[in-house]
Amino acid sequence: MASISILKGREKQIYQKGSQDFDMSCDKKSLAGSISQRACVFCGSRVVLYPIADALHLIHGPIGCASYTWDIRGSLSSGPQLHRMSFSTDLQERDIIFGGEKKLTNALDTLIDQYKPKAAFVYATCIVGLIGDDIDAICKKMSEEKGIPVLPVHSEGFKGTKKDGYKAACDAMANIVGTGSIKDISPLSINIMGEFNIAGEAWVIRDYYERMGLEVVSVFTGDGRVENIKRSHGAALNVVQCSGSMLHLAQHMQEKYGIPYIRVSYFGIEDMSKALYDVAEHFQDIDPEVLPRTQALVREEVKKIHPVLKQYKKKLHGKKAAIYVGGAFKAFSMIKALRTLGMDVVLAGSQTGTKEDYQVLKDMCDDGTVIVDDANPVELSKYSIEKKVSLFVGGVKERPMAFKLGIGFCDHNHERKLSLAGYSGMINFAREVYASVTSPVWQFAPQRNQ
Amino acid sequence: MKTQQKAEYKATSNACKHCSPLGASLVFRGIENTIPLLHGSQGCSTYIRRYLISHYNEPIDIASSNFSEETAVFGGGANLKLAVDNIIQQYHPAMIGVGTTCLSETIGDDVPMILRDYLKNNREENGTVIVPVSTPSYSGTHIDGFHAAVRATVDTVAQKQSSHAAGINFFPGMLSPADHRHFHEIFSDFGVAYNMLPDYSQTLDGPMWTEYHKIPEGGTPVKRIVAMGDAVASIELGRILAETKSAGQLLADKFEIPNHRIGLPIGIKETDVLFDRISEISGKPIPEKYVQERARLIDAYADGHKYVFEARAVVYGEEDLVIGMASFLSEIGIVPALCASGGKSGHLEAKLRQVIDDFDAKQIQVKEGIDFVEIGEIAKKVNPDFLIGNSKGYKIARSMKKPLIRIGFPIHDRMGGARIVHVGYRGAQQLFDTITNTIIANRQDSSPVGYFYM
Ligand code: SF4
Ligand code: SF4
Predict the structure, then answer these.
(1) Please, are residues B23 and B142 in contact by the beta-carbon 8 Å criterion?
(2) Same fold for the domain at B20-157 and the one at B168-206+215-282?
(3) Is any Cβ of chain A less than 8 angstroms from the Cβ of B46?
(4) According to the lineage, what is the superkingdom (chain A) (predicted)?
(5) Superfamily name with CATH number, domain B20-157
(6) pTM given for the model
(7) Spatial strand order in the sheet of A215-221
(8) Residue A406 sits at the chain B interface (C-beta within 8 Å)
(9) Do B212 and A5 touch (CB under 8 A)?
(10) B58:A400 CB<8 A
(11) pLDDT in tens, B217-247
(12) Closest Cα to residue B421, out of B232, B257, B264?
């Protein structure tokens, strides 16, 4: 592996626990020419808003951004399917020269009349930021004309990172929050935030909370409906999942409506249970029965899956895994979940972790574990081979790399069609890991035969 | 007259096309030891990688010069140079293909000049060839980007070195890796020297590795592209390809190499054209193997003709692929009732007329610049027996309860998109069997009797 060198300017984004002082550099722009696995601001906004199923999502710009994001995600809707359409103003040369405002107005006009959405999101992509179309004014005018919220999403790709896209999405949603009636909402009520209903995960989570006796006012944004978002400020608590994609909105709702929030994760038994207990604790003063109900729920669910997990654990014990995901919070949960399966995590990283995230990661990891920020395929494969991993947990872009090297792979991103959240999700995860690691096909991989 | 204006304007709803840098990246992935670099924001190259990966299931490294807000305002020169530096340091490539994005085009970065400047100041790095290509997506689709990259590469690299003309230049266009592999086989069987550009038969459909290969093996060697200036002739696939965008035409203008532009060799008629051309140019007879393949194919046509006769198909995808497929369907008796593409060269109908006999009698609908919502609307009226095109038509097929036969790009809901052979007698044989069997299966499944002997 001598041929692999780490780029100058990236050395401080790679850390091996135990070997040097911890001084991780992160939270910066990807290096030009490094093949970053990161996306752009638009990507962040699109991820967050995508599952709002009764809204129109119009991408203002040349065709690429819309074409590449047409219904690639696994977010399910129990009703309308409008979110799965891909609308674009498909800017052409003359629009670039003369501006795309007229085209945008016309597009909104026709599409809103045709599809009758409950709201419309207009995503500004790179070019739009550059040619300076006044999308705010157009949205405002359209809102008045059509009587629905038409919201600009400032997601010009070059104006930051995916995280800035989360913020832009939250800003857009903040305009709808607080516009609906909050009559009849129970004092034992929550919003589920940062849950995108991949393969129906939000339904699983929602069911848990309801069994605890809580009212779920809105799920941001899984199986999303504009109506629910409008009245979400009536909830007593915001429960924010992982990546921080919704943190900004939770903070906004705390300031404006006084709704407290807590952060949780739904992956793995440990974090799932902790999430439910944390929420139960919050409501203890209003209803002391919530906690015992939660205990019963957790006991029942764990009892169901425990014997099955034990079987998998026997098969997976001592195998090594690598994790490279978007948000660092997910990496924490993954490490715990893999440990539940008896596996050791030897490489962990994220595209967007903060200094504090990496500190937590470092504290969690065993000695020798490599921690990476904003890595590229060259680095990821180098350490995967050196550390002899038999499982890689990541997103689509890492998958072919793993398979090429004869390494099992588990998809853990928004494109998957398998529910991994909650207790039932843990079983799915275990089965998937088991299938990935122990499949007989790897006997033919050249690396294993060396 | 507000309503009238409304009727005129339509947003693109579910596009039947992608953006130009995708096509360019694909070409660069088909050149030996080459890295594609997109000059613009990070998102474009990441999305394109992701998209290509879901079809090819191969690692696809595409670098980005990674614009920030300041770059967008003050220009991308420094970022581009840094990106080239970093790529050379980490990948040691023979070539870097630099495609522009909408963003760098719009701010007006003079990429060729920035690169010249870079090369001037970095003499010691000069082993690396750098090919700039302009690929703004607002003036074309992925297929335009593809052809532009082939042309730019030839323009930068090809040279006339010898007074002896030898070999054939072959530009296969955006087909599958398996198609590219089949072309290799055909040329080798003919025993003629050739330079094929691009060639991702290995780079996008290769074996497993023991360590990460920063750039996968295979692809057209740069020295074969240099040699293109010395060829006896060029053969270029694609009837649509406009003269100005054609690499073959460029070589004709620059080095007086005769250019043969022919259709994609899909089906017997169009494949015959290719074999005849290679034979004419090289003076060698068509190898016996292909004479036999062709004969067996005709025999199969006879065996299956009743099942397919006057079946109706909806065909969509890149314009040239649509033309090739429509030609093939027509020669076996299927009516390509709707021929649709997101591209808009303005030539689709005229070229279809060239390959389809009794075009008018068949009442074929031709649609350029179309999206999938419109394809769906027309398809319902056309009432086809099946649809043929990439995975993106699945929603329409599902809503109509009609089979979709997957060809072209992208195929992300089935295995093996990279291994489909569309071209040659062999490709026609596979397509014929697939289509006929799809129709038979449909009949079988919908029959109240449940025949198992059809
Ligand atoms: S900006 Fe242009 S190049 Fe980038 S993804 Fe959009 S259409 Fe493609
Ligand atoms: S970087 Fe800009 S143009 Fe490229 S995908 Fe993101 S928003 Fe679209």
Answers:
(1) yes
(2) yes
(3) yes
(4) Bacteria
(5) Nitrogenase molybdenum iron protein domain (3.40.50.1980)
(6) 0.95
(7) A215-221, A189-195, A237-241, A261-264
(8) yes
(9) no
(10) yes
(11) 999 999 999 999 999 999 999 999 877 889 9
(12) B264
